[in-house]
Amino acid sequence: MTVAVLGSGPVGQTAALLLARWGVPVVLVDEHEVRDPVGSKAICQQRDTLDVWASLGAGCLAEEGLTWTTARTFHRDTELFSLKLPDGGSALPPFVNLSQARVEEVLDELIAAQPLIDIRRGHRVTGVTQPGRVVVECDTAAGPRRIEADYAIAATGARGDTVRRALGQHLAGVSFRDLFLICDIRADLPGWAAERRFWFDPPWNPGRQVLIHPCPGSQFRIDWQVPEDYDLAAEETGGALDRRIRAILGDRPYEVVWRSVYRFHTRLVERMRAGRVLLAGDCAHLVAPFGARGLNSGVADAENAAWKLAWVLRGDAGEELLESYHTERHAAAVENAEVTTATMDFLVPQDEARRRRRAEVLAGGVHAEVDSGRLAEPFWYTDSPLTTPDPRRPFAGRPPRGALPPPGPGVLLPDVTVPAGRLRALAREGFLLLTTPGVDADGVRSVEIPVGGALGARPGEAWLVRPDAYVAAVLRQPTRSDIERAWSAAAGRECSGRF
């Protein structure tokens, strides 16, 4: 029983490693013979993404990444506000910045050491069909090749049009007219190493925005919003790029390590499950990068897909469980699109009324109304068919920026440790029941937790946690039948008889 993972960017790499951890053989397909080691690209890794990678043996990414804890927002020369990121009680930082190239390098090392992953480089996918199994047609230097698998994860990125067409999908949505110039700069900027800085309408980019992220090795990623007719080559030749950079750095020496120009999009496929193929990451959804919701959401796609495919392939769930992948992750993509579209509408107002409104908000400096990007956070599966609601813990909706909802059904388990160990690590070994003293969990894989604490557990409760560390149900004085019903719902089928 094999899964083909199409595309070996960070999302595909993560999916392959997670599947292998569950004991599933993987064929990892990528069109490139070698990696492109240049450029920061996707640089912002959120705590829960780092947690997934740490569970795979890549804890060094959290250690190597540059931790930033403060997000500063300016209007022209005036600082409007700063946001301190909460530590969340976790040993992992809320965010780190690390180049995508380094992430790929570390994950490639883990893949090379994993015997269940067969990597096929230099394989350009030309077609995908599903005559019972998944058949992937590829072009290689040695000629056409065919790969067969029971299921597939399509993580071929934004340019994965061939795969999307083969699956009857396309990225519907909008593209923004303005461009964004991105430069990786190496320079000495004292005091900037732990802060993300965002400017509305700075004097050195009037009428538009600038975002600066610190990176390891005295590097800084600078994003300028520029007009749609911007010409990078002409600006470099005429010296305007140097003047643009020096308007920020002053007379300090600097080195341009990498530069590129991007157009941002908000686009989403209609279906993230197409038969036996699950679409993930940029292959399924594109959002503007303000808030770092692209890569982080893609890693969440990978974890959601991996445990569900593993349960189906092991016979612990029926194929209907895979439909919940679309239900849960498409809803997450819709929320990300809503959040980032609101940000882009504030950054680049589309009409005069919105421009006036933005000017009023910035002049007033009201923190809650200034939108420079809501930072990436987990999506909460409170409306999922796999979640058993608890009327004592109703979900109050999206919390304020920088805050997390209280623990409960559909919410990612807080990163806490009990005498038995770290709860998320224990959950990622399979379904787990957390019990308070007095609850009978005979025959069920369980861990006793204290009343109160980070979960706010109450006497006589049992918390059922999924293999991706999301809470599936909170049960009060449960019987064995109560536990089995919640477990069956969380696995998308009748109870298979084992946790």
Automatic annotation (TrEMBL):
Co-factor(s): FAD
Region (Disordered), start-end ranges: 381-410
Key words, A-Z: FAD, Flavoprotein, Monooxygenase, Oxidoreductase
InterPro entries on file: FAD-bd, FAD/NAD-bd_sf, RIFMO-like
Domain (FAD-binding) ranges: 2-335
GO MF annotation: an example: FAD binding
Protein name, UniProt field: FAD-dependent monooxygenase
